[in-house]
Specification:
The complex is a heterodimer. By secondary structure, chain A is α+β, with helices and mostly antiparallel strands. Chain A folds into 3 domains: 2-28 and 38-289, Immunoglobulin-like, CATH 2.60.40; 404-531, Neutral Protease, domain 2; 540-638, Immunoglobulin-like (Sandwich), CATH 2.60.40. Helix content of chain A is 23%, strand content 31%. The longest helix of chain A is centred in the C-terminal third of the chain and has 22 residues, at 465-486. The N and C termini of chain A lie far apart (77 Å). Chain B has one domain (2-25, 82-271). Chain B is built from 10 helices and no strands. Chain B has helices spanning 2-14, 16-33, 35-45, 51-56, 60-107, 111-150, 154-189, 194-207, 210-235, 240-271. The longest helix of chain B is centred in the N-terminal third of the chain and has 48 residues, at 60-107. The two termini of chain B are 27 Å apart. Classes of the chains: A alpha+beta, B mainly alpha. At the A-B interface, strand 28, helix 7, strand 35 and helix 12 of A face helix 2, helix 3, helix 4, helix 5 and helix 6 of B.
Chain lengths: 661, 295
């Protein structure tokens, strides 16, 4: 397809062939993944109709020990074809603060032809059955998640004959993707310069994952595997197999394109640009096009970083590069190497921002004039880069176990933000420094912490808002607690081992826990059962301090004391922790408490000044830290300071409003 | 203008009691309102052992815990402002006419006499200007919408909301305040009814352009002194030390109010076109009447 394009281009009067780019897609000579699929696409962007039209040659290798007679594809753009799709029903046309209004929001994907073809030369294992067979009529829409007959985001294609174990099948697909007006992740939007911005994601027929026996939750002794292909939901969208992508995109001249992978060729004529991108060992491909982008480049070791910025954000280029380099450096040290040779940062528009695709992320949570003390662009850039690991290489099933990518990645985001930017990593004002870890912590502890288990399918939360808490903030807090419980060195080893063992595969929650237990050498069932599978809440309190003076029997005997610290486990969560007791003579004693009993008393023979539960602040899961500590003598210094502060503030307000009359 | 500006400082020097009165009322009202804050925080944090830590550093996690327990008290304090601010505005209207009365003609008249004699008309005048301010607010809101349509971009949003709109609104509000000041002075000095004082106030800056400069000088001094407590709280550690320094600035802010009026009254008295001939209140012979009321 690529050569045909070159030939037709050669007859044009004015043809420029940009020299081939020699960059490899990864630093490895060998495949990094199993490469079950390959996609070769040739598509054209038609800006006026907001349409991408083209062909797709896809191969799939049967990884099972049994024959497979069906293929399943995602057609996720159909989420936008009507108000009755599962995505639109779940979201109500509202997503992350953006709304869908009017007909122009409609989008969709149409498979015009789907044909069984001989596998191309070079495909891993050529299909033995050569004749062309049109399978278009065999396409049926299925709704494996909710039986919503109006949802057309997954198709099943019955094959004329089963694909043998290890055999590779090839299909040619003609498709037309009508992009919606952008409000969620993908589509088009008119920029403030008056041009059309495109974020082309979830845009082509993409195979689901055929899970073989023993993979994730398919029993090892099952007679055969099964497709795991979910509909497009409000809150999850990623699960696919690794492979290679060769994508040729033709766009009008003047458009700057960013895409997954590395650019391997570019042709230009009077009216169009044709770019070819190649990506290895990835499980998705997204691209963007806009005439407005300003392009900037930087490098980090072997990685070419390309930044496509909206012109109005030109002043924030340095902030993006610094953030992504902070992330690259720390992921490399803490988790493992970034194997790709390229990374494209896209400062997109509206609902396109804050998304992850292989080697391409959309950042963009920014605004003209955003001050440096609000680090929204940095946190989003770092978060989205983190997805290159937790989603990209560690390709968990986002629909079923979103915390494995969003949650672990949010934990990494807190570590990196707080390490790179210090105590005011999110908000850095002289009178209020707020860090990312604290933000995630209160997002969990102050938002119905007893609702919505982490291990829940993304569309199964009783309250939609619980998805965000249970997939981002709570896992970040759970893992920050685990880090403090096990120590950073152990946590570091867990992250590295998890990455080394499961990169370019599809790990499950069970796999992560197994790594954590293996590396720590501890049975952590009590931890994960409560905080990942369950909804228990930790709230432990120093309930009372009682100092009893026992009078001396005679004047020569010393006065003795019987003092007591009473601990109350107020909620159902159990967490072993330390108790620090300070005595009247200035001495201290540290004790362990298993956290089990609802009430627990510790007695001493000297007067107590103060008792402090969890003094090292290990248990970030504790929903009320204020009651962790109690002193015998009340101290009003903070109350007085706040009163005086409020007094001054009110005086200023009164002077100010006095000008009104 | 220089002599009027320095007359403001003379007014401060001559009437320190008025400075003290303005400051003390301001402090007492604010301090009284924040007593529940002290009680709520003391009950919540006092026995916790975290008091010392929180007095020295901000801790988001602990603060969210505190607000869970003490949040209702803070909301209640906010509710108190709903009646306290209108009451304070009435007080402001009263002291303004009292100040003008006390400062005019060299600053020997009794403050409370002015309060008693002119507060009613001063309030009416204040309501007129409040309506003008509301109208100005509406005009700037409409102007902002129009400007947003003409400059519909992120840069436009930034500059409109963080530079142009504040600058235009504050400039307009300052002009209204300037007119209000001279209307109030005309009301007291020339004993005009509120409606005529309103017109005189509106006309004043048109006739006396230099009054802008005088107003601006005091405006910047007043703003700087009002912001200073916030800046000092960021740079000085401790509890009573910063508070006392802040109070010095707020005392200065009260002095600025007296000085501001002193300057404008002097400016009005020296620039008005013709002295009031048929005044219902003849000027008192200077030095003959001992000062009464606050000194």
């Amino acid at each position: 397809m690529f050569f045909k394009k070159c030939l037709s281009g050669a007859v044009l009067a004015f043809l420029i062939v940009v020299p081939t780019f020699g960059q490899r897609a990864t630093i490895s000579d060998k495949p990094l993944s199993d490469r079950i699929v390959s996609y070769t696409m040739d598509v054209t962007l038609e800006p006026e109709s907001h349409t991408v039209r083209g062909t797709e040659h896809v191969t799939w290798r049967n990884p099972d020990r049994s024959p497979v007679d069906e293929l399943q594809f995602h057609l996720y753009l159909n989420a936008f074809e009507s108000a009755h799709s599962t995505f639109m029903r779940e979201s109500g046309g509202q997503h992350r603060g953006f709304s869908a209004h009017g007909d122009h929001v409609r989008g969709g994907i149409n498979v015009n032809r789907l044909q069984l073809v001989p596998a191309h030369q070079g495909d891993a294992v050529p299909l033995t059955a050569a004749p062309l067979v049109d399978l278009t009529d065999r396409i049926t829409f299925i709704q494996p998640d909710d039986n919503n007959a109006d949802d057309r985001t997954v198709i099943s294609v019955k094959l004329p004959r089963a694909v043998a174990p290890g055999e590779t099948i090839a299909l040619d697909i003609d498709f037309t993707s009508k992009l919606p007006k952008l409000f969620s992740r993908t589509g088009w939007q008119t920029s403030e310069q008056g041009n059309t911005f495109f974020m082309v994601a979830q845009w082509f027929p993409k195979l689901g994952v055929y899970e073989i026996p023993g993979q994730r939750y398919v029993p090892a002794d099952a007679p055969h595997g099964q497709w795991n292909t979910h509909q497009f939901h409000e809150n999850s969208e990623f699960y696919a197999d690794f492979g290679t992508y060769d994508v040729t995109m033709t766009v009008p001249d003047g458009y700057t394109v960013g895409a997954s992978g590395v650019r391997v060729n570019e042709l230009m004529d009077d009216v169009t640009r044709t770019l070819t991108y190649h990506a290895d060992d990835v499980h998705d491909f997204a691209w963007t096009a806009s005439p407005d982008y300003l392009e900037f480049h930087d490098t980090w070791r072997h990685v070419n970083i390309r930044l496509l910025m909206q012109p109005q954000h030109r002043a924030q280029v340095k902030r993006h590069f610094e953030a992504v380099k902070a992330a690259l450096e720390r992921f490399d040290t803490w988790v493992g190497p970034y194997p790709y040779t390229t990374l494209t940062l896209v400062d997109g528009l509206g609902g396109a921002n804050g998304m992850e695709y292989p080697t391409l992320i959309t950042c963009g949570f920014t605004h003209y004039g955003l001050p440096a003390w609000i680090r929204a662009p940095e946190s989003v850039t770092i978060h989205e880069f983190g997805h290159q690991y937790f989603y990209g290489m560690l390709a968990s099933n986002e629909f079923e176990e979103a915390w494995l990518d969003e949650g672990i990645n949010s934990y990494m985001e807190t570590r990196i933000m707080d390490d790179a930017y210090g105590p005011g990593s999110v908000l850095d004002l002289p009178f209020a420094r707020i860090n990312d870890g604290e933000m995630q912590r209160i997002s969990y502890t102050k938002s119905h912490p007893d609702r919505g288990a982490i291990f829940t399918k993304s569309w199964k939360y009783a309250f939609s808002s619980d998805y965000g808490k249970a997939s981002y903030a709570k896992p970040a807090t759970v893992l920050n607690t685990l880090e403090r419980y096990l120590g950073w060195n152990v946590m570091h080893d867990i992250l590295q081992t998890y990455y080394a063992r499961w990169r370019f595969r599809h790990p499950s929650t069970r796999d992560f826990i197994a790594v954590a237990e293996e590396v720590s050498g501890q049975d952590l069932g009590w931890f994960f059962d409560q905080f990942v599978y369950g909804t228990v809440v930790v709230d432990d309190e120093v309930d009372a301090i009682v100092n009893k003076r026992i009078p001396a029997l005679d004047s020569t005997a010393e006065v003795t004391y019987k003092s007591e610290v009473r601990i109350h486990r107020k909620r159902d969560g159990i967490f072993p922790q330390k108790l620090l007791v300070r005595f009247g003579d200035g001495s201290e004693q540290r004790l362990g408490w298993d956290g089990r009993d609802e009430w627990k008393s510790f007695t001493f023979d000297q007067p107590i000044e103060e008792a402090y539960l969890d003094p090292e602040n290990v248990v970030w899961l504790d929903v009320n830290r204020l009651n962790n500590r109690k002193a015998v003598a009340s101290d009003n210094v903070m109350a007085r300071k706040e009163q005086l502060r409020f007094t001054t503030l009110l005086q200023q307000v009164f002077y100010l409003v006095a000008g009104l009359l | 203008m220089i002599s009027s500006f320095s007359a403001g400082f003379d007014a401060i020097r001559k009437r320190p009691g008025l400075v003290g009165l303005l400051y003390l009322v301001n402090l007492c009202v604010a301090f009284t309102l924040t007593v529940p804050v002290y009680i709520a925080f003391n009950n919540t944090v006092g026995p916790s052992g975290f008091s010392g830590d929180l007095a020295h550093a901000f801790d988001l996690v602990l603060w969210t815990d505190i607000m869970e327990k003490a949040g209702n008290t803070m909301i209640a304090m906010g509710g108190q402002l709903l009646w306290m601010i209108p009451l304070y505005l009435v007080w402001k209207a009263a002291i303004s006419v009292g100040l003008v009365h006390a400062i005019r003609n060299g600053g020997v008249r009794p403050f409370w006499q002015g309060v008693g004699q002119f507060t009613g008309r001063g309030l009416l005048l204040g309501l007129y200007f409040l309506l003008i301010l509301l109208a100005w607010t509406g005009i700037t809101a409409v102007g902002t919408v129009v400007l947003r349509m003409l400059w519909d971009s992120e840069a436009g949003t930034f500059w409109i909301f963080f530079a142009i709109l504040p600058a235009i609104y504050v400039t307009g509000a300052a002009l209204i305040d300037l007119m209000h000041d001279y209307a109030r002075i005309a009301l007291v000095v020339e004993n005009k009814p509120a409606g005529r004082a309103l017109l005189a106030g509106i006309a004043w800056p048109v006739r006396q352009g230099v009054s802008f400069a005088l107003y601006a000088a005091w405006f910047f001094i007043g703003t700087a002194v009002l912001i200073a407590p916030t800046v000092s709280s960021m740079t000085i550690v401790g509890i009573w030390g910063p508070f006392l320094i802040q109070q010095v600035f707020l005392l200065l802010r009260a002095a600025v109010t007296v000085g501001w009026f002193g300057s404008e009254v002097h400016f009005f008295e020296t620039r008005r076109e013709s002295p009031l001939i048929a005044s219902t209140e003849a000027d008192l012979p200077l030095g003959d009447v001992p000062e009464i009321g606050v000194a």
